[in-house]
Amino acid sequence: MAAQDPVPPADDARKALHRVFGFESFRHGQEEIVSAILGGADVLAIMPTGSGKSLCYQLPALVRDGLTVVVSPLIALMRNQVAQLRALGIEAGSLNSANDPDEQRRVVEQAQQGTLRLLYLAPERLTRPDTMALLRAANVTLLAVDEAHCVSQWGHDFRPEYLLLGRIREELGGVQLAAFTATADTATRGDIAAKLFTRPAAPRVFVHGFDRPNIRLAMQPKAGGRRQLLDFLAGHRAESGIVYCSSRKRTETLAAALCETGVRALPYHAGMDKAARDANQDAFLQEDGVVMVATVAFGMGIDKPDVRFVCHADMPKNIESYYQEIGRAGRDGLAADTLTLYGLDDIRLRRVQIEQSEAPDEQKRVERQRLNTLIALCEATRCRRQTLLAYFGETVAPCGNCDLCLGGVAVFDGTVDAQKALSAVVRTGERFGTEHLINILLGEKTEAVQRHGHDRLPTFGVGHDRSRAEWRSIFRQLYAAGLIVMDIVRHGRWAMTDDGWRLLRGKTTIDMRSDILDVAKALRQRRKPAPAGALASTAADEPLLAALREKRLSLARAQGVPAYVVFPDRTLLELAAARPDSLDTLRTIHGVGEAKLARYGEAFLAVIRERPAAAPG
Questions:
Q1: 487 Cβ partners below 8 Å, 6+ apart?
Q2: CA 297 centroid distance within chain
Q3: What is the DSSP letter of 314?
Q4: Rounded CA separation 245/315 (Å)
Q5: In 323-378, which ranges are E strands?
Q6: Count of alpha carbons within 13 Å of 385, Cβ hemisphere only?
Q7: 204: Cβ–Cβ under 8 A, 6 or more apart, which residues?
Q8: Strand residues in 317-366 grouped as ranges (E)
Q9: pLDDT digits over 172-206, tens only?
């Protein structure tokens, strides 16, 4: 948190907040950042996804002279933000390879004439001589860097081009700089500050927390993964969501399988034909109820607020990737769900990817730590949000909004079971993997067990009282607890650690999870109320809400923009609940600024008038 006391923003900033954006008040953390930027300070802000980072540089751009240049890593993200700003009546544009010549010319002319307020650029475009010549002639007053973690070698989306931004800033006369990201641990924050803010005076740093309380967290070990996924999706019919997969092939096969069950699922990965990939992305952005089945190539440039769920069909790359990917759900502040499926094969794959990468040894060490943190989160026995936020240095009370808090997992004294498993590891010479060791514990005389004489070991059959699935869970938990280590080079063989030896010798104990429980069912049965300030539709609102969605979609299609650019879900929910009957009362609805009031007001009022409220009782 910044050391200085926040200074309230100018009155004209507050007025613009309501007049342009249709917001009655700032979200947590926005006001002091806007104040700092309006006061001329350099800023580094770490804010959760969905907390309104973009407004922190958009609002100052509206209430003072000059051009704000926004550095953004993806064309899709730039185009979405420009579309939303133009819908608000703000002169904004981007220069990118997806623009047609007329659009490029229009943006350049606006920048030259001084009528453009925000210009979005990728770092590669920013460093071009013609772009720099344009900006030197313009009155650039702020360089805003979005997704600032891309500048850091410790960041999970490192982009070398971001390293040039410090020099670009000086070439623009030392212009004010504000950097924003949602995912940056202490090491990444230090790297961002060192590489972007090259002046002796340090930036004001704002760390406004990483918690997204509207997102429900759930994780399950794989046990028939496709069925687990279908059970989860059954609670999200006709809702927009993302399913992440670890491979391109898996995205296509899983999307096809979901379509067979009636889910509107589309694949997305970098190996697809560009036209097909873009068409699928546009469908996801512009239509309701589309499920995108994708690799991690999808998402960073997606500014879609009404994603109601994110599911990982395979374990994510590391803890920061997990946090960023689930953060694509519930950006509108309404309730959203997540589910992560994981298994030992996932862990082995991620280990191999780290060790076979060309990264320096120190970066590999950091990646191992991040993966270990994710594994510990998967196998946690306490509130998941506590475990997740502890990684980012935050301490919170149990959230009541994750599978562990909702009662999806029970804990038992697993010391004896752990000793049985560890004994099997030791007595086989630390030379075998999970499935062979489980065969020994279950007392199964497989060909390999008999060939090695392992059916004569004292541990043969001592675990017959547990199922194979339970033993797999026990081995994962032993690994997460640091009692055994995996030799990924030699096909996942297990070896003991010092802590493992201590437990085997009876010097310590361990609590474990009773894992094979229907977490998805628990989540469906024990819903937490929507977060404070969020609205939920009632049965009486549904016909009107459906009509409002239909009107929104038709307007969006006519303009060639995503539906949420017209109005986000929260606005429609408030319209359905409040049923405003005039432009004056419509003006009080969240997200209805002056430009949208003039453009869409009468159309939505007509929908409301056509569907009078049902009589009480």
A1: 493, 494, 495
A2: 13
A3: S
A4: 8
A5: 336-342
A6: 21
A7: 2, 4, 36, 41, 42, 43, 44
A8: 336-342
A9: 989 999 999 876 667 777 888 888 887 777 899 99
DSSP 303: -
Long-range contacts of 487-492 (CB under 8 A, 24+ apart): 488/348, 488/351, 488/352, 488/355, 489/355, 491/433, 492/344, 492/348, 492/433, 492/434
Classify 440 as helix, strand or coil.
helix
338-366: b (≥16 Cβ within 10 Å) or e:
bbbbbbbebbbbbbeebeeeeeeeeeeeb
In angstroms, the CA 591 to CA 607 distance is 18
Q: How far apart are the first and last CA of the chain?
A: 51
The architecture that CATH gives domain 11-207 is: 3-Layer(aba) Sandwich (3.40)
AA identity, residue 515: D
> Do 11-207 and 215-408 agree at the fold level?
yes
Residue 34 CA to residue 425 CA, distance in Å, equals 58
Contact predicate 51/127, CB 8 Å:
no
Class of domain 215-408: alpha beta
pLDDT tens, 145-181?
988 888 876 555 567 778 888 888 888 989 999 999 8
- Contact of 527 with 458, CB cutoff 8 Å: no
CATH homologous superfamily for the domain 539-610 = HRDC domain (1.10.150.80)
Domain-wise residue ranges, the chain: 11-207, 215-408, 411-516, 539-610
The H or E element spanning position 344 is: helix 344-355
Closest of 215, 196, 201 to residue 45, by C-alpha? 196
pLDDT at 512: 87
Confirm if 91 and 110 have CB atoms less than 8 A apart: yes
Topology adopted by domain 411-516: Arc Repressor Mutant, subunit A (1.10.10)
Give the E-state strand segments of 204-289 in sequence order: 204-207, 215-216, 219-221, 241-244, 265-268
Q: Answer left, alpha or beta for residue 174, where phi above 0 means left and psi between -120 and 50 means alpha.
A: left
Non-local (6+) Cβ contacts of 27 within 8 A are: 51, 52
Residues of the chain with pLDDT under 70: 1-10, 153-158, 183-185, 299-301, 408-409, 487-492, 515-540, 614-617
d(CA 68, CA 142): 5
Distance CA 596, CA 601 (A): 7
Paired strand residues for 377 = none
pTM: predicted TM-score of the whole model, two decimal places = 0.73
Task: Determine phi and psi for 237, rounding to 5 degrees.
Answer: -60, 135
